[in-house]
Structures are given as C-alpha cells and as structure tokens.
Design brief:
Layout: H1 5-39, H2 44-55
Length: 61
C-alpha cells in the first residue's frame, strides 16, 4: 500500500517543525553563551550595560 500524499505532507511538516524548533533552541543557547561570556569579561562597564538591557527587557534569548 502506498502512503497517501496527505500523510507525506504531514510527515514533511512535522520534520520542518522539529527542525525549526531545534534551530530556535540552538540560537537561544548561543545567545546565552555569548551573554555569559560578556558578563564574565574583564570590562565591568560592559557587563553593567548588558544587565541594564536585560532588566529592561530589551535583550531576547
């Protein structure tokens, strides 16, 4: 029995949704790693600016 086109379409959409979710998670992890590295840097004025932006909700991730 051949799979129907509707089943194929749902399978393809499911794979695309999983890929989009994985890319979003990787982007958030990368942003968190960058922010953590900046906050640990030896430039306290930069860390203070980042904390201020984060507290004001102007940073995503």
């Amino acid at each position: 029995m051949e799979p129907s086109w509707r089943m194929y379409r749902y399978l393809r959409l499911g794979c695309l949704a999983a890929l989009a979710f994985e890319l979003a998670v990787l982007r958030m992890q990368k942003n968190n790693d960058i922010m953590a590295a900046l906050l640990k840097s030896e430039r306290p004025e930069l860390a203070a600016d980042i904390r201020c932006l984060a507290n004001n909700g102007q940073l995503d991730g």
